[in-house]
Amino acid sequence: MIKGTLKVGNVLSESSHYIVTKVLEDRVHVRHFESGDDTMIAIDYLKSYANSADHYDSIVEVTKEDKRDGTPGIRSIFEGIHSGQVFTVCFKKQDKPKSNRAYEAEIAELANAFSEEIEAVKRSKKGVTEAAKNLIRGILANPVLPYIEGEERVLRGYKIQFSSRDGRYDCVDMDIEKTDKESGVRPVNINAIEYLIFNGVKYVVK
């Protein structure tokens, strides 16, 4: 915040985040994320000096780790963000372990379904061996897991943590409305990133 009168030759800086609320022909209405204030900014100014978490001009396929030829992987790319510049990141949330009771119940249900299917084949006098093979293939392709797979999570925002020992970085999710009890801060695990939109490029992990 500037106090006093501006003079020719004053040096200024700005580091803010905005959410677009309305687009007009030559300007946009935005909400200043930090203060919640509404203001207008010329589109030409934004195109020249602002960064977007949504727009990208190219798609680059990357690996998780750096390649031997020096090509950076997604871990290095995300770790290399050392500013409050906005981005979109998609990552898988942490798997949730099932209780032993739930896990055993799923196995029992699958075993019963397998038995009933075999009995039905036997009654119809069809090939039991071939039916068993098909059922086993289905079980191997869709095994009962002792955990619930984490869902995909998309975060649009910016980093507030720039070093980490466990690969988790605190980021501000700008799609979460901040309140007295909700900071909007969420962790991003660089080991679970599926894609990242940053600085006009969409990095897709292969």
What is this structure, in a nutshell?
The chain is built from four helices and twelve strands.
Sum up the overall morphology in one term. Answer: elongated
Regarding quaternary structure, what we see is single chain
Share in β-strands: 25-35%
Number of domains: 3
Number of helices: 4
Topology-level CATH name of the largest domain: SH3 type barrels
User: How is the biggest beta sheet arranged?
Assistant: 7 strands, mixed
The level 1 CATH classification of the largest domain is Mainly Beta
Keywords:
12 strands, 7-stranded mixed β-sheet, alpha+beta, elongated, 206 residues, SH3 type barrels, 30% strand, 3-stranded antiparallel β-sheet
Give an overview of the whole structure.
With 206 residues, this protein is of the alpha+beta class. It has 3 domains: 1-50, no CATH class; 58-94 and 150-205, Roll (SH3 type barrels), CATH 2.30.30; 96-147, no CATH class. The protein contains 4 helices and 12 strands; from the N terminus they run E-E-E-H-E-H-E-E-H-H-E-E-E-E-E-E. The chain has helices spanning 43-49, 74-79, 100-123, 128-141, and strands spanning 18-23, 27-32, 38-42, 58-62, 87-92, 96-97, 147-148, 152-159, 168-173, 185-189, 193-198, 201-205. The two termini are 45 Å apart.
